[in-house]
């Protein structure tokens, strides 16, 4: 009985620490750039992670097609970007923009091991211009928007990067410390000029798609 109570105390303490860290991380990211650290990247490449956060399901909801030019903001080690590179073949190209050089190094190694040749990487801040205007068919972010201090500035750059009729796709998952509600995502996207198209999923995990008029 005593052991069981001790275990409950340990689990409760660990949960409390996790909640506090999550809140601090979320608060800090509103003022500074606190993206997911590169040392955590392997966690998002495991098979269990794919099943839990739905890599294929997310890409299905984004709706990529062969021949498209696609930009991912915050690709990390390439959980989505590497399979996205395959989906846009033949003739398509994907680009990953990340603020962490260490993440891009992991992405480069992963892409090389997978034999991906239609993938380009850019080191930079999402709220600054790094790509040519009106040069992409799709721009997407997955559990990244909340990590960016200037969310409106980042979405303005997404708008600038997209061709007329191009698609912005934002995926959010409730377990992420930077989770953005559908209402928040819709408000921010509309603020910079996007028009809502579809929302797939529920409050726990959803993908909201918008169009550049």
Walkthrough of the structure:
- Helix 4 links the parallel strand 1 and strand 2.
- The chain is globular.
- The longest helix has 28 residues.
- It has a seven-stranded mixed sheet with strand order 3-2-1-4-5-7-6, with helices on both faces.
- The protein folds into two domains: 32 residues; 177 residues, Vaccinia Virus protein VP39 (Rossmann fold, 3-Layer(aba) Sandwich).
- With 213 residues, the protein is an alpha/beta fold.
Task: Put the structure in a nutshell.
By secondary structure, this protein is an alpha/beta fold.
Q: What is the assigned CATH homologous superfamily of the largest domain?
A: Vaccinia Virus protein VP39
Topology as H/E string?
Answer: HHHEHEHEEHEHEE
Fraction of helical residues: 25-40%
Give the number of DSSP strands.
Answer: 7
Q: Which architecture of the largest domain would the CATH scheme give at its second level?
A: 3-Layer(aba) Sandwich
Give the spatial strand order of the biggest sheet: 3-2-1-4-5-7-6
CATH fold descriptor of the largest domain: Rossmann fold
Q: What's the mean pLDDT score?
A: 85
Low-pLDDT stretches are 9-26
What best-fitting shape do the alpha-carbon axes yield?
globular
Using only CA atoms, what is the Rg? 18 Å
Quickly give the structural class. alpha/beta
Largest sheet: 7 strands, mixed
CATH domain class of the largest domain: Alpha Beta
What is the first-to-last residue Cα distance? 64 Å
